[in-house]
Amino acid sequence: NAGVTQTPKFQVLKTGQSMTLQCAQDMNHNSMYWYRQDPGMGLRLIYYSASEGTTDKGEVPNGYNVSRLNKREFSLRLESAAPSQTSVYFCASKIGVNYGYTFGSGTRLTVV
Amino acid sequence: KNEVEQSPQNLTAQEGEFITINCSYSVGISALHWLQQHPGGGIVSLFMLSSGKKKHGRLIATINIQEKHSSLHITASHPRDSAVYICAVNGGSQGNLIFGKGTKLSVKP
């Protein structure tokens, strides 16, 4: 089915370990986003990519890096995981400015 | 003060009741979104509004740009409507979404 695919769905990391969260969309969308969702808070933007070849910081970028590998794929990397990065991560995409968003199913990350 | 405020935070209803969830925002926006998040976590886009009213099945969303307020209504509620409903606005400095904290709805049979 068309949509946004995130992998993995669940991950447990030890403090200091690194990992990459993968996101791919097959809807030919231009813009892609990474959000984190924490209890009692609204989703917050980590990084976004307005179009292939560009990436920009969002509200909470510290401790993360991103790569827009091609138009389909937008990955989020944690170089040295910290317990404060325990969260649910959502990837989203949209085709353009005045269009709705499609969200992935989320990655639940726990850093111990 | 949060830029997007939702009320109520939690809502319990009996099956069949008419439900209203409110969203107020304090920033200039180009559009407002209503999203649904079921237990298990996936987020689904319900509506995107820039003016007036939209209807899809038993769901109705309205927006008043002058008052910076939107409502999501559910008619003839059903237990399968139980979810967290999230209001978000296109108003961030980077053109991104600013999210409310969500309203947790539980519909009892």
Structure description:
The complex is a heterodimer of chains A (112) and B (109). By secondary structure, chain A is mostly beta strands. Chain A is 0% helix and 49% strand. Chain A has no helices and eleven strands. In chain A, strands 2, 4, 5, 6, 9, 10 and 11 form a seven-stranded mixed sheet that branches. A four-stranded antiparallel sheet of chain A has the order 1-3-8-7, with no helix packed on it. Chain A is globular, with a radius of gyration of 13 Å. Chain A starts with a strand and ends with a strand. The mean pLDDT of chain A is 94. Chain B has 109 residues and is mainly β. Helix content of chain B is 0%, strand content 58%. Chain B has no helices and eleven strands. In chain B, the strands form two sheets. In chain B, strands 2, 4, 5, 9, 10 and 11 form a six-stranded mixed sheet that branches. Chain B has a five-stranded antiparallel sheet with strand order 1-3-8-7-6, with no helix packed on it. The termini of chain B are far apart. The relative contact order of chain B is 0.34. Chains A and B meet through strand 5, strand 9 and strand 10 of A and strand 5 and strand 10 of B.
